[in-house]
Model the fold of this input.
Amino acid sequence: MAASDSLVLWVDAFFLSPYAFSSFVALKEKKLPFELRLVPIHEKAQHAADYRDRSLTSRVPTLAHGEFQLSESSAIDEYLEEVFPAPSYAPIYPREPKARARVRQVQAWIRSDLMPVREERSANTMFYERAGEPLSSEGKAAAEKLFRVVDRILPRDAQHLVGGGARRSSESDPGSRERRTRSRRAAGRR
Done:
């Protein structure tokens, strides 16, 4: 890759954004060389003029590909899939249209729903500290909804949401049987 086509990914300084993680995983899965830059969003650095000028939405992640800059993880992931296609690069979405649509459906749903779980169990509770309180009734309802959907779309012995060559492993893969069992126990469900 020429220097003029270099890739730079801006992510939050504590690596807590699942959206930044999604784009990070896409770059890693495709084995693309990229520079990682940290944005201390806890200091509101995403609102500083230099970052605001770079990121249309003033959010992380933001990807620069040469002079082109793009924010919002789903747009970044789809851009990487189109600009660095299979078979030259590993696919992150299935090739078959129905399977690809299902992955995108799950991605969009996880990003736009389940707010009580997302608020009560942020990435901070996964990486830095245990949750101090049990899930609220709203949190439990959202967790039940998640388990219900996972049970419906993911066969019991499956390791991935879809087959067909896609290696997408961040948010669109609700998890293996072992991870689902651990999650259910943590939510107080067997």
Summary: The longest strand covers residues 7-12. The two ends are 49 Å apart (CA to CA). Strands lie at 7-12, 35-39, 62-65, 68-71. Residues 97-186 form a domain with the Glutathione S-transferase Yfyf (Class Pi); Chain A, domain 2 fold (CATH 1.20.1050.10).
